[in-house]
Amino acid sequence: MYYPYLRGKQYELILLREQAFSISHSDICPIIEPVKRKSGTLERALSQLIEANAKFVVIANPQYGDYVHDTDSLFDFYDKTIPHGYQNVSIGCIVNTLTSIDEIKAFFKRVLHENISIIHYGFRDWARLQQMIDESDKVRSHIFIEKHASRLYRNHFTETDLECVLIRDGFISTKNEAYPPSEHFSDLHITYTTEGVQGFGDFLIVGDEYREAGGPAYAVAIHITYLEDEDDMYIKHYVSDQTGSPSNIAGKFHEAVSKLVADCGNDGSHIFRSEACEEYIDLYNQGHFPGLGYAKKLSMQHHLELMSNYLSRR
Question: pLDDT per residue over 148-176, tens digit each?
Fold first, then answer.
């Protein structure tokens, strides 16, 4: 199963709300880390996922954003929003270098739902954590962030009956004008079983690095993942020609999307014609700029559609 990791900003939550039905009919289980105190957007996304009977993990102790020091209100929100009998949800507990054993104990006691997923983000005291898990009947899965959970560390948890998932950040972030035309993204969707896990994931076309907001857009880049030979995954970066100033964002978007449209029209193109890709083409034909946030949402949607298509034919 594929586990995309999304930080709960506005367009990420809109994406989940819009794609809830497709997610529920695919081997996809999104992981959601809420970072913005806009409960209406989060509530609508979770309600739509629940209505579609989709599987998802929602983190109750985010390490970024508005809820870092206010997990109690987030717990209360989940208790009110997620039906207690809903079996397709798991409450995520991030354990990192700052997490104490007492905090994990308190988390286990506070969760009212039956399923807990441990998000391994740099925690070291594996022996005491394993003891706590053995004494609990709520933990259902381990989710390892590869960059913060070595193979040696993971080995202490993978030899259990619990599901284990490995998340790899395939997106190499840089300034928009510095992206290469194409680069390797990941082969984890093919090789994850050799890592001793039953599921895999990534941070889509956003990456793990958290930013409150982007800086001035000296260039516009559209990021599109695609599969080459043997289904190895790469990512194309369609970058605008204008890079000298933060002005004319709409014109820069038109330059970037025109390159995507031309690539899609080439014979032998590796680009999967997802619904998101078709919408990019419609935007180009209309000469319409939907905003950078919306454009980013389309790239994330394309990645979800690409993964869904790959899983359906695997």
Answer: 999 999 999 987 889 999 999 999 999 99
For residues 150 and 292, give the distance between their C-alpha atoms in angstroms, rounded to a whole number.
Answer: 35
Tens of pLDDT, residues 99-118: 999 999 999 999 887 799 99
Distance CA 144, CA 153 (A): 10
- The number of folded domains in the chain is 1
Let me know if residue 118 belongs to a domain.
yes
Are the beta carbons of 148 and 126 closer than 8 angstroms?
no
Helix (H, G, I), strand (E, B) or coil at 125: coil
Is the Cβ–Cβ distance between 208 and 147 less than 8 Å? Answer: yes
Q: What is the pTM of this model?
A: 0.95
Residue 34 within any structural domain of the chain: yes
200 located within any domain: no
Among the listed residues 194, 185, 178, the one whose alpha carbon sits nearest the alpha carbon of residue 228: 185
pLDDT at 85: 87
Output the 3-class SS for 52-84.
Answer: CCCCEEEECCCCCCCCCCCHHHHHHHHHHHCCC
| Residue 65: CB atoms within 10 Å | 16
- Interhelix angle for 10-24 vs 39-51, to 10°? 0
What is the residue range of 33's domain? 1-167
Residue 274 falls inside a structural domain:
no
Length of the chain: 314
The encoded tokens of residue 28 equal: 């996809």
**Two tokens at 207?**
């990456």
Residue type, position 295, single letter: A
Domain CATH number, residue 107: 3.20.20.120
